[in-house]
Amino acid sequence: MKLKELERPAVQAWSPASQYPVYLATGTSAQQLDASFSTNGTLEIFEIDFRDPSLDLKHKGVLSASSRFYKLIWGNIGDGLLEGSGVIAGGGDNGMLTLYSVAHILSPGKEPVIAQRQKHTGAVRALDFNPFQGNLLASGASDSEIFIWDLNNLNVPRTPGSKSQQPPEDIKALAWNRQVQHILSSAHPSGKAVVWDLRKNEPIIKVSDHSNRMHSSGLAWHPDIATQLVLCSEDDRFPVIQLWDLRFASSPLKVLESHSRGILSVSWSQADAELLLSSAKDNQILCWNLGSNEVVYKLPTQSSWCFDVQWCPRDPPVFSAASFDGWIRLYSVMGRSWEVQQMRQADKISSFFSKGQPLPPLQVPEQGAQASLIPPLKNPPKWLRRPAGVSFAFGGKLVTFGLPSTPAHQMPQPCLRLVFISQVITESELLRRSAELQEALESGNLLNYCQNKIEQTSLQSEKMLWQFLKVTLEEDSRMKFLKLLGYSKDEFQKKTSEHITEEASASSSFFDELVPQNMTPWEIPITEGTLILRERNALCGSRWAQSSWT
């Protein structure tokens, strides 16, 4: 996603990560000419405000320079020097190295030029500040010249050693090691990379491709692993990026091949060591995942070559790209369609002309309607990943993960992340009782478990409860339930039989009282009413018989 843009034929330099707000310094490029063919040099500083939805940068300071620039770099110097804003170093023609005070550029009134030194032969194309000692600046130019400058004493620069390259070559890039403060590397057009040890003032190793097809245009050290670096080739016949490990310097560990033409610059993300940016003559800007060796982010084809890409030190997803068409553009790898940004700009313009009435829908020409889709990164980058996490699980389990205690450069690659599962105990008595129950369930010895509970409890109600639970698990539980309730089988049978006998004698005497005393047993008395009913029934029966026969 494009965030900002600036029309300047210039080289660029980001402010250090500790600097806020974020600034971008631009210096008129010595390799470009604008439409006016002006050869004047200008150093400018812009503030980057991502809260502003517009694409413009806020201009904060400007300074006329005596020469145009091949390279700019912004260093952060402590000890109260330069009022804490840092210093900008610019490499120009004829071996000129100029140092500028950022504070004096942002607040005019004092002389912004700290010093100018012309020690080099030819253009100064390579600059880099030491990340451990901010007062040390390495510069490289033609004729294989490398100088180490101490900003506290610029009179006599030192060299890392004798010129190692014969015949002498231009220094295309310089880079201090990100883990070891006295290690410096240089890249040469012949494809070689020389690693210097400033304690010994001599090169300790030279890295080169045996095919002799490399034409080095840039290099970068691994942010975490001290022995690894990348080299890129600007030769159209061999447009590759090589990852080297100095412990095995006979051949590269990896070779990245997705550009179709020579590569002009590389930049390694300090926030995520797996991400590497590259720009090439095929008008493409690619972001590589060095863990999987694949392109995880790709900008659409540009209109011109991009000769410099740089990650923003403070905002990890942001990077800048300076191209030969005279534009510096800021992007984010958390990409999406440009169509969203175009519609937002169109809505903003429409608000000035609506006058309370909605405007008709915008009919975008077909060519302009084709949105350049920029897919986001396939995997979340390191700055979005949780450094640590914790979650509770069932059974008092606690699952945790976090950063390893071993330094990153000592970890094996790929780095294995450990997940720890621990038992959290807050109520030891409850846990003990739970363990006893679990053991009884697994062994099936529930009778003993209930008996122990009966013996351990002091409350009569709980004792009775465990006794009932125990009975349910025993054989002949029905009879034992009766006994537990206070009944005896023999007494129960005795009382039942006595009750049945009493009931039988009581019912017999009841029926005996119903029989008249002057009648013999089983004799049915006949009264006058009974005779009348018998006669009536006989008559009814004879009539029914006659009707049935007739």
CATH topology of the largest domain: Methylamine Dehydrogenase, Chain H
Taking Cα atoms only, what radius of gyration do you get, to the nearest Å?
48 Å
Please give the largest β-sheet. Answer: 4 strands, antiparallel
CA(first)-CA(last) distance: 117 Å
Widest sheet, order of strands: 1-28-27-26
Helix and strand content put the structural class at alpha+beta
Secondary structure tally, helices? 9
Full CATH superfamily name of the largest domain = YVTN repeat-like/Quinoprotein amine dehydrogenase
Poorly predicted tracts of residues: 366-372, 528-550
- Beta strands, count: 31
Strand content: 25-35%
CATH architecture name of the largest domain: 7 Propeller
CATH C-level of the largest domain:
Mainly Beta
Number of domains: 3
What share of residues is helical? 10-25%
